[in-house]
Each structure stands twice: as C-alpha cells, then as structure tokens.
Amino acid sequence: MTPQKFGYMNDVDQLIEQTSVHQVLAHYGKPLPEKASGEHRMQCVFNETCADSQYGNLTVKLDDTVNRIYCHTCRIRGNLLTLLHGLETHQPPTGGRLRGEEFKNAVAKLREISGQPASNAAPNTQPNSFNPQPQARPQVSAPGSTPSPTSPKLTNTPLHRHEKEAARELADLYNDLIVDVAEMSPEAAQYVRSRPWMTPDLMRKWGVGWIPGNGRSLFRKTYMVYTHRNERGEVISYSGRDLLFEQKWLKWIKDGKPEGKKPNKHRYVSGFHKGQELYGGFASRLNEPYVRESLNKYGLVVVEGMNDVLRLEDLKVAAVALTSNRPTDQQIQTLTRFAQQTSNNRITLFPDCDEEGEAGFKELLWKLAEQRLEVRLACSSQMFDGHFKGKQPENLTVDQWESLTKNLSQT
Questions:
Q1: Rounded to 5 degrees, what are φ and ψ at 121?
Q2: pLDDT for 401
Q3: Cα–Cα 20 to 30 A to 392, which of 61, 82, 84, 289?
Q4: Rg of the chain over CA atoms, in angstroms?
Q5: Which of 47, 107, 94, 103 is nearest to 71 (CA)?
Q6: Which helix (H) or strand (E) holds 42?
Q7: Can you tell me the distance from the alpha carbon of 272 to that of 38, in angstroms, rounded to the nearest whole number?
Q8: In whole angstroms, what is the distance from residue 285 CA to residue 338 CA?
Q9: How many CA atoms lie within 13 A of 65 on its CB side?
Q10: Closest by Cα among 260, 256, 257 to 96
C-alpha cells in the first residue's frame, strides 16, 4: 500500500492535480492546447538549442499529472512544477530534479497562478531580479474547462529604469564590450575573424563584443555578448553566444547524450522574455537611408538569428530576427504592425535553409498569411536548384546575395 502523504506535500499534490495546463500556459502567454485531453506539443522551455532540433518539441500530457512533460531532445521530464521551473528560469532543474529552493519557488508560483493564498508558500519567493514586475493574474478557470482567452502580456523592463540597482548598473554594459580582435580571447578573436563582415564599427553600433572578467560581466570569457533593445531603443537585456559550443556539443554526443547535460548555444539573462521582442526592431533604424530603401525593395525581411541581422545590414538589407526558428504570438503581432506601417504589408522570410529552420518558418509563413500580408520566401533548400541548401543568412557571400536581389526587388 502506498503510504499516505500528510501536510505540506499532500497539499502540493492536490494543487498540482487541481491546476490545469491551460492556466499555466495562459499565465505565461503561451499558445494553449486545442484539446482538453491527449498530448500538447510546445517548444522546449529548458534548453534554447532544443528548438534547433527536429525532435525539440516538449510533449505535455494533458491527462497525466505525474509524468506531465517530456522533452525528446534534452530528455527533461517531470510534473507541472518542473514545467513551471522551466517557464520561469529557462533552465533545467539542478541535478535533473526539483529540490530545495527551486522546488519551493515553483510551488509558490503555482499557488499564484491557481489563485490560492501563499500562506504555505516558500519564504524565498522574491521575483527574478531581471523580471521583478508581478504578472497580472489571469482569470482562473475550473480544472478541465476552457480558460479565458485573455492572458497577461509579458514585458521587459528597460534596464536604466529597473527597480533593481544591480540591473540598472548593467544598462550601459555594452560600452565595456571589446570589438578589437587583438584584445579578445583566442576563441572570441577566431569567432570574429571567421565572419569578416563583423567589423568593429558594426559591432560597436549594435552593442556586440567580447567582455573580460571585470566584475560587471554577466557572462564568462567564453561568450560573445549581444545587446537587446526594445522598440524605443532602450537596452532591456543581454545574451551570450557560447564560443565553446561546438566543442561541448561533440563531447555531449561522445558521452552518450547524458540527460540534462545538453549544451546550449545561446545563454539569455534569466527573466528576459525574448519571445516578446524582435532583435533589430527598434524605431530609430528608420532614420537610416538604407533601411527605407531596403523596405521599399524587399519588404520587411525576417530571419532567425542575431548574426543574420548583422550580416544583412552589412549588405544594406533591413532585417529583424525572432532569435528562434519559431515565432510567438506577440512576434506575429509586431511583425504585422511593422509591415503595415513600414513596408506596405510586404514581408520576406529568410530562413536557415536546413530542416529545422524551414520547419519553423513554414509555421511563420502560415501565420503571417493569415494576417493578410504579402509574404514571400527568399530562398530554401529546394529553390534555385538547391544552391542555398544548408546556408544561413549570415553565411551569404556578396555574390550569393546579388543572385537573390533580382527575385526579391519590388517590380
């Protein structure tokens, strides 16, 4: 006979059973399941790189409260608390299981979402230092019922007016970034030299570079740092590209792909809602002559990664990036508004021409077409006799871009 649970743990188990997946996903502004039972697929919330894999979808079992989730790529599994931990921190639980403060914080968040008082919540429930604003609580639906379509809109607070002093001090961190390869670490210098278009002027303009360990750095010396801004051009966060990712990836494969140890290519500051933003989507870019000219020629160009935006700017093409291969609903809304206001309802999609990149952009194409926009595809692995198969926008040569120009220019 299974021993009966008492007190706090019994209360937590009941809370998990009584809170629906719909309520949790609605709280974070995520797409909701279209059905009340069976399985729901969503992008992995634990490892950014899972989105780069064709097996990267997170399976959510709507009928199983114990084994609620499983990622087929990073192999993280668990219950509703594990899902909450991923949605909050964008990282897997330490050691593969929720324990200690991680467990208590997840329980406290679940109480908040379910509308229960926090009398039994963990004492350490302070909000994340980079997302201190409490989220508006959605209307709570009864378990199993269809939730209200209204969900809270997540926001990224500009660092210069953040309520946390530590965050405000990072608002001008981009000024500390090194753009001269002679002053970089060997790994950073090699990364930049392999991208000759990544000039010091371009990096300085976009707030990209390497940073030494100086006490202000959010990232170790093995990261290339990128500055993220909102539409008003205010700094809202930073991210890092792991310069040792390729080595770590090969080691992970050699070690048999251990559970919970899959390396991440990019690291984002905890609490940064990257799905609410478009990299490169700040209004001041419209003041640059080449941007207006590019919008008139090609429409609004949409790419996957940050380097893609930088490479296309070097080619005098105005692009914005999802920082993922799959769009969020907020990004669809923003892209629609941008296209209506700046490019006469025209959008050009420029995916990574591999299986994973094209799969995500097929979804993006459909959703933009539903907004009655004129959507074109710049290239794919099958177009132009497969000439661009395996290519990414950041890999384009000048000659390759010029071969696409005739097809993309407005007639």
A1: -75, 165
A2: 87
A3: 289
A4: 22
A5: 47
A6: strand 39-43
A7: 31
A8: 12
A9: 11
A10: 260
Residue that is written with structure tokens 């949409």 in the block: 302
Tell me the C-alpha to C-alpha distance, in Å, between residue 410 and each of 8, 371, 388. 64, 21, 22
Q: Please, what is the angle between helix 80-89 and helix 7-18, to 10°?
A: 80
Strand order in the sheet with 346-349: 319-321, 300-303, 346-349, 374-377
What is the distance of C-alpha 318 from the center of its chain? 21
Contact between residue 281 and residue 338 where contact means Cβ atoms under 8 Å apart: yes
Phi-psi region of 197 (alpha: psi -120 to 50; beta: other; left: phi over 0): alpha
CB 327 within 8 A of CB 364: yes
Give me the domains of the chain, ranges plus CATH numbers.
7-114 (no CATH), 166-272 (3.90.980), 283-408 (3.40.1360.10)
CA pair distance 263, 246, nearest whole angstrom: 9
Candidates 91, 51, 55, 85; CA nearest to 68 is 85
Cα–Cα distances in angstroms (integers) from residue 177 to residues 142, 200, 219, 240, in the given order: 50, 11, 11, 12
Could you give the 3-state DSSP secondary structure of residue 259?
Answer: coil
| Dihedral pair phi/psi, residue 237, rounded to 5° | -175, 180
One-letter amino acid for residue 346 of the chain: R
Q: Output DSSP code: residue 93.
A: P
Task: Give the span between the Cα atoms of 66 and 58, in whole angstroms.
Answer: 16
Largest CA distance in the chain: 75
- Residue 108 parent element (H or E): helix 100-114
List the beta bridge partners of residue 39.
61
When comparing pLDDT for 200 and 35, which is higher? 200
Rounded alpha-carbon distances, angstroms, from residue 240 to 14, 212, 326, 340: 40, 13, 20, 32
Which tokens hold the place of 358?
A: 């094209």
β-pairing, 319-321 vs 300-303, is parallel
Which pair of structure tokens corresponds to residue 78? Answer: 């668990």
Would you place residue 75 in the very low, low, confident or very high pLDDT band (cuts 50, 70, 90)?
confident
